[in-house]
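Ops channel
N.P.: pipeline sanity check, posting one input/output pair.
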């Protein structure tokens, strides 16, 4: 999942032109995997990383040419030992990546990227579909378009999760068999005019609610912000919320008893740390009552005995809320102090969402699909025959 959506959204300006760099295929050891994106402005400044800083300067040079030509381009970096030395990069990563460069222009409505960012800000999930130039060599059985003018013409489209059945498209080997999709139809001028596209799952950053605004919240909020998460602080003490440390976060001065269950449905995770037993129990009762499909992680600061007191006050047994309520909050990483505890909290939340198979959107991976010409996408019921689908993840 893209970790820096908030940073990208801040840098994006619908009045300016950009290049979107997207990894579409990797082999071997690479810093990022398929679907990772980086935004490049007209000055060549990069927002995000595709290689940890090794290739970004070179990528930005290609991006300037893409802006000039207004055409998509695919570049490959082969960092295997021999090829790496020939390129003069000397990185020794023993991997290879293919990167799609697409011009985001006012004239092409920025390929729907601005729309994507609006939905991400609204905490909506979806998929970003990007076509790949027909002259790109990706070791696939891609057939060339008859119309050579369409080879590098950029196209992309954002669709909401309910508009595309990812599970039916994500097929690793089709062997020429029919793939049924009930929610998406990709039309073409000719059945022979096929080309590749990459379908990237788009998941907004984790939306974290911190109940409490004491001094130990400062490193928790800071770590979460560095992870690219959305952070919101609630506390009934106005003076606590007005600390300079918290100026960059959304805030609400409120008592738990004055909130309603619907107030919590926008959040993915919550940490209860007001240090007040009554206040914490009121928060916990509302959090547990929030549908698990909305808010799935609840962390409680303090020892097990305190956790049990809070659950008892809410008339719940631990067995009823296991795998959702975590107390004491945080992984056992060792160390002492507010920073070490904050690190353990953020680590546990990260692990919770990225290791449980129930969170399909977090675990979905970008895929390369051999599809019909992607410029006319209709979201409707259809049967799509003979799609060759290739994995967009490591091909080690």
């Amino acid at each position: 999942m893209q970790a820096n959506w908030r940073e990208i959204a801040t840098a994006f300006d619908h009045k300016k032109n950009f290049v979107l760099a997207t990894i579409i295929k990797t082999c071997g050891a690479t810093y990022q995997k398929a679907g990772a994106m980086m935004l490049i402005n007209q000055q060549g400044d990069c927002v995000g990383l595709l290689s940890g800083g090794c290739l970004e300067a070179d990528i930005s040079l290609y991006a300037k040419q893409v802006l000039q030509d207004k055409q998509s381009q695919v570049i490959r970096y082969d960092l295997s030992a021999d090829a790496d030395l020939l390129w003069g990069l000397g990185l020794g990563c023993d991997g290879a990546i293919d990167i799609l460069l697409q011009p985001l222009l006012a004239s092409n409505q920025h390929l729907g990227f601005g729309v994507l960012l609006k939905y991400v800000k609204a905490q909506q999930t979806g998929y970003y579909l990007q076509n790949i130039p027909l002259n790109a060599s990706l070791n696939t059985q891609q057939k060339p378009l008859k119309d050579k003018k369409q080879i590098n013409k950029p196209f992309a489209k954002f669709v909401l999760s309910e508009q595309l059945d990812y599970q039916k498209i994500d097929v690793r080997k089709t062997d020429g068999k029919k793939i049924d999709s009930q929610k998406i139809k990709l039309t073409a001028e000719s059945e022979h005019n096929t080309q590749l596209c990459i379908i990237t799952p788009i998941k907004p950053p984790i939306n974290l609610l911190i109940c409490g605004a004491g001094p130990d919240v400062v490193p928790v909020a800071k770590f979460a912000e560095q992870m690219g998460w959305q952070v919101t602080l609630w506390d009934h003490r106005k003076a606590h919320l007005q600390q300079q440390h918290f100026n960059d976060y959304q805030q609400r001065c409120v008592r738990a008893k004055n909130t309603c269950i619907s107030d919590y449905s926008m959040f993915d995770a919550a940490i209860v740390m007001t240090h007040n037993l009554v206040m914490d129990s009121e928060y916990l009762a509302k959090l547990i009552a929030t549908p698990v499909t909305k808010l799935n992680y609840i962390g409680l600061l303090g020892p097990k005995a305190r956790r049990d007191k809070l659950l008892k006050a809410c008339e719940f047994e631990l067995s009823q809320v296991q795998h959702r309520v975590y107390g004491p909050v945080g992984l056992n990483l060792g160390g002492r102090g507010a920073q070490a505890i904050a690190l353990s909290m953020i680590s546990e939340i990260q692990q919770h969402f990225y290791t449980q198979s129930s969170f399909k959107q977090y675990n979905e991976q970008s895929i390369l699909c051999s599809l019909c010409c992607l410029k006319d996408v209709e979201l409707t019921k259809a049967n799509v025959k003979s799609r060759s689908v290739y994995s967009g993840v490591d091909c080690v």
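N.P.: looks fine end to end. The chain has a mean pLDDT of 80.
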